[in-house]
Design brief:
Number of strands: 5
Shape: globular
Radius of gyration: 16 Å
Number of helices: 4
Number of domains: 1
CATH architecture: 3-Layer(aba) Sandwich
Largest sheet: 5 strands, mixed
Helix content: 25-40%
CATH superfamily: Gcn5-related N-acetyltransferase (GNAT)
Distance between the termini: 44 Å
Length: 156
């Protein structure tokens, strides 16, 4: 295993839309065998970058090269009278996996969440069969929440 690179974390900027959309396409292909429509994912990423109420992306950089990402969105919990931060679109460039990149992204978000008095917790969802991701997240202290996620999607 290579030595861990010096990783910096920064918020995404509008100019990062292409790499974020590319990472999302790679993520969908790798984890679910799903091909995202390039125009749709580009517009979806752009919508987040243009509206902080939708969420935000944080990027992991090694020597200015973007090597990882996470998007986090917000859910209001009336049961907890506070926010839950959902982590989504987690991706690390294949050359930088198992080198602490996601750990840095996660720790950055965790530190911010702990300092924010309105945040009650962090959640993420991961594809059922992605056992490697399950293990990585559990090693960071995340626990199975006991929920079964259901959905009804609309094709538009």
């Amino acid at each position: 295993m290579n030595a861990s690179p010096a990783i910096t974390i920064r918020p995404a900027r509008p100019a990062d839309v292409e790499i974020i959309a590319q990472f999302n396409r790679l993520l969908a292909r790798e984890t679910e065998g799903y091909e995202l429509d390039p125009a749709t994912i580009f517009s979806g990423v752009q919508a987040v970058l243009n509206d902080p109420h939708k969420g935000r992306y944080l990027l992991a950089c090694a020597n200015e090269k973007i090597v990882g990402q996470v998007m986090h969105t917000f859910e209001w919990s009336d049961w907890r009278n506070g926010e839950l931060w959902w982590l989504q679109s987690v991706y690390v460039d294949t050359e930088f996996r198992r080198r602490g990149v996601f750990r840095r992204l996660f720790q950055h978000i965790l530190d911010e969440a702990k300092q924010n008095p309105n945040v009650r917790g962090i959640r993420l969802y991961v594809e059922n069969e992605n056992r490697r991701a399950h293990q990585a997240y559990e090693e960071l202290g995340l626990e199975h929440a006991g929920y079964f996620v259901l959905q009804h999607l609309f094709e538009k």
